[in-house]
Each structure stands twice: as structure tokens, then as C-alpha cells.
């Protein structure tokens, strides 16, 4: 759709466009536009086109001085329409690149033709830029750009391989939609069977496998709309056949049909070119057929994904024990993280010789204490006393932790059940609930799990991708919700030992994890309070609204691909709107994130609305 013309001088990277009057009131800011190389109408399917973005809008009325403006205002509507006739709208545009016919976004090498036609981006170009139907791409939402009819529903997909190996961060103020966005990403990764460990600070993902919201849509104002399933009890032919052929052993207390049906829909979304699952439901589930089930049965990973539950939830703290000769320092560091205190050099010297005690948990700590009695450190007893105090402290912390719902996890067994292909459980997602744990133990758990996994890949014989023969381990994604409290920014007088260790573990993944197919995703309200080194290793950023100047500055420093204009926009994004930038997408994009399929952990609290629910009744009685 023609919306204006290029005006004045141009370059390969920037130009000004004068907008036609009928479009100058549209939501054009940050929208994509397209131009042909010769200045005529762009033909995205048959020739390369220049893609640009509107970065600034301004208006000018050369005939209207201040005095005239006040006169024109004083004659009301007529004055307004008269002055509008002579008002021009300008758009400052930045060239993104040249989009080739095959969908490759190349550098633009020729200056934009003066007086060229400026068109809003066509659906074809939007798809080429932001959508891929490969199963390795995840649909996250729809593009927010002024385009064909302004109702185009082009799904935006992110490259999942880039996300899970080059790390991602989701930032935004409270209530801006971070958890929804990350849940959406995790659901899509789950539908593809990627293994992950979620450090769930507030039980936001407690219902991550209850996909009831798959049957519920939201309009652009956030209002819920029910989508009807065409079959009662979700018991259609395809579901019946899947139950028969795959024998799903859904062990939760909802009807099995429901689970199988939801898994089939999400799988169909991947198979049918990344069509968002909710769209499949909205179209009457025509794609969920016995033919699909037949094609999927006996084919890995699809049959296991439809057959099994995928999430295992636990409230856990890391088990204290001797983790073997390769993990001597790790075992000592784990004690430090557990108690949030460092050992002195003299204490470390003794520990190194005695850390290899038998037993686990309290028994292990008791054995250490016995060793201390039988084989005390040299010197006048100060070191011995200090170690004794620390061991007693550890026993107290361990006992306190056991009094909650949390249970200890042996990290070697945990590693095997998630990462070791020969021993792993069918569940692909391990959700570690942190709500029962003290601040220290939360960080100790991050340190313990992440370091144990990283070192198992680095120093033991585990490989997630192997050139020779079969890989013996799975790639893993670590997800840290509320990252600020788990890997806080370091400070010069850092006394937070467990935070320091957790940070170190995540930095290792940041710098070297990619080689082993280990990645992380961070979610945080305040990016500036999260460890900068970890964030700087994250190559995809998903930004919701951020108002604080600190956070904006921080993001500007870490996100090289982000323009000043995009940063400006981050200040005013509404709930569920996000800017995605980085390696998982060809060009930064503003999108409306789809509502998650799974039920929220905590519903949006509305205490006042709930308390005053009877107001409507009173208003009705009073005829108001
Ligand atoms: N993409 C979206 N579409 C529709 N509604 C959304 C979307 N994202 C979020 N919401 C609404 O906004 C509410 C808050 O979202 P969410 O819990 O994801 O925010 P948050 O940034 O994680 O907040 P907090 O920092 O407090 O954890 C949700 O309960 C949901 O109702
Ligand atoms: Mg949240």
C-alpha cells in the first residue's frame, strides 16, 4: 500500500519520506516499509526490495505561524480543517537492508532513489522477514506494524537453536508480561521436546502443563474469548486413535483425552508449518486427524511427546555429600554456597584432605565432624573451632530446609535423570520450585545444579552433540525466573557468597555453554540489578516496558543491535508488547506476544475489583 514518497537527499542507510495525508494518523512509528530499487512499486516476490523502518515522525505546516495558529484555533473546526490542508507529515526512515527474493536480508548497497514510492510492508515481506516454518523456529506472537489492512496476523517466529545455545533475556517492569512471554517460549520448546530446568522463584510455571488456555483467546485489549472445542470431552477420532496407538499414561487426574488432545494440537502446530496452536483450534481443529496420528506414531520424539507428561516439579535443595574426586572443589564450594560463607585458607587446607567422607546430608556432615575430632587441623585450635562452628551451622541450615516441603536432590542422580540419554526420564522439563527455600539455598541450588551439569559436560565424557557416533547426553536450557535474586550484580564489598558462586556458574554457561549445547534464559524486572557479565553473553533480548533510566542505559550498553529509537519505544510499550532483538530474529521487531496456552501460576491479582464485585448489582438496582 502506497503511503508516501521519498523526499530530498537520500543515502544507503537513511532517508526522509513525505506521507500521504490519509496515512499520517496511522500507527506508523516503528513500522516497516518497503521500496523498490528503482523507485516504483516494490514486487517482493520477484525482485529484491529495500526494507526500512520509520524511526521518527514529525509534522510541519509552513503556512502556520503562532499568530495564525491562534486565529485558526479560534474559528473552531473550520480553522482546524483549513490548517490541516497545508500540514505535511514527515517520516525519518532507517534502512534495514535489502530483502532478496529467497528471503535473505542483505546489506543495502545502493542509495535509496529520490522520489521513490514508499509502501507499507506487504504480508509477503513480513513473512520472509519474521516467519519461518521450520520446526526449529518458535511462534511467539504477531508483528505490530502498520501493514496490509492493519489486521495482518503474521506470526513472528524465533530461531530456537539460537535461543537455547546463545542465551536469551526477558526484561520488563512488573506486570509487563515477562512471565507470559517466557511461558510461551517454554511451551513452544516443550512442544519440540527440548530439555530444560526451570528455577521457578514464585511458582509462575506450576501449571505449565495445563494447557486450558489453548481454548481461550484474548483480543488486543486483553479480554478473554472462549474457543469452542468441536467435540465433547475432547474425544475425537484422532484422540481416540492416539490413545489406542500410543497408550498415553497421563497420570494426572484430568481426563486423559484432554491431555492427549492438547498435546496433539501443539504437535500439529509444529508439523503444520508453525501455525500457532490456538489458530488450529480456532479453525475447528481440522488438522487433528487420524492420519496425523498415524504419521506420528513410532516416530521419535513425537510419539513420546504425545505419550508422556512432560513436566516434573520438585521443591529441592542440593544434597550435601562428596561428589567424587573430579568434584572435590565443587563439594567444598557447595558447602560455602549452602551457608553463604567462605572458608578461610587454613580451613580449606583441612577440608581438601577430609572432604571425601561417606554418607549424605546430616550423616555426611556428622562424618565430617568426626573426621575433625579424629584428625584436627594443625595449630592452636582456632581453625578447628571455626570449622566446627561452620559444620554446626550447616547442620542447622540443613535441618531447617528439611522442615519445609523441600527435599534434597543428589546432583549426580539429577544429572542422570535429565541429561544422560541412557538413564533419563521421559519428562523433558524439570521445574525446581524455589518458594520453600531461603535466599541462600536458592542461590546454592543454582550454583549446584548449573555447575554440576557444566562440569559433567566439560570434564566427563558427556556430549550432547557428537560428530562420532551417538551423543550420550541431552542439550539443556537453564531458565532463571527472577534472575535478580539468583545472580545479583556484584559489588565491591560483596559478602553474598552464594550469589557470587551462582553468578560464577552462570558466567561459565554464558562463556562456554554453547560448545556443549547448554544455554540459559533469564527473566528479570530490573536488568540493571542482574550480573552484567551473564547478561552480556545473552544474544537475544526480549524487552517489555522499562521505565527506569538505569535499566534503559544498561540495556543500551548490552544490546548492540538496538537502536536509540527502539530504546525510546521501550519506555511506553503496553502489557504483552515486546521488542525482540538479537540473533534469534533477522531484524528487531515489535510484537504482540500471544497469551500463554498454559494456565498462569498466579492469576493477575485484582483485590479491589474482587472485593467490590457486588457494585454492578447495586448499580442495577439504582438504575445507574
Ligand atoms: N501477551 C499478553 N497478552 C495478554 N495479556 C497479557 C500478556 N502478557 C501479560 N498479560 C497480562 O498481564 C498480566 C501480567 O503478566 P505477567 O505475569 O507475565 O507479568 P510479569 O512481567 O511477569 O510481572 P512480574 O514482574 O510481577 O512477575 C498477566 O496476568 C496477563 O493477564
Ligand atoms: Mg513474572
Account of the 3D structure:
- There is one protein chain.
- With 624 residues, the protein is an alpha/beta fold.
- It has four domains: 2-130, no CATH class; 159-209 and 311-317 and 410-598, 3-Layer(aba) Sandwich (Rossmann fold), CATH 3.40.50.300; 212-309, no CATH class; 320-404.
- Helix content is 38%, strand content 19%.
- The strands form three sheets. It has a twelve-stranded mixed sheet.
- Strand 12 and strand 13 form a beta hairpin.
- Helix 11 packs antiparallel against helix 16 (439-459) and helix 11 (328-339) packs across helix 18.
- The longest helix is centred in the middle third of the chain and has 21 residues, at 382-402.
- It starts with a strand and ends with a helix.
- The structure holds adenosine-5'-triphosphate and magnesium ion (MG).
Number of domains: 4
Global geometry: globular
Radius of gyration: 29 Å
Largest sheet: 12 strands, mixed
Please state roughly what percent of the residues sit in beta strands, choosing from under 5%, 5-15%, 15-25%, 25-35%, 35-45% or over 45%: 15-25%
Looking at this structure, what is the CATH superfamily of the largest domain?
A: P-loop containing nucleotide triphosphate hydrolases
- Report strand order across the widest sheet: 9-8-21-20-19-10-18-17-11-16-14-15
Count of DSSP H/I helices: 23
Q: Low-confidence stretches at least 5 residues in length (pLDDT < 50)?
A: none
Instruction: Tell me which ligands are bound.
Output: adenosine-5'-triphosphate, magnesium ion
Structural class: alpha/beta
- How far is the N terminus from the C terminus? 46 Å
Q: For the residues shown, what is the average pLDDT? A: 89
Looking at the structure, the CATH topology of the largest domain is Rossmann fold
The CATH first-level class of the largest domain comes to Alpha Beta
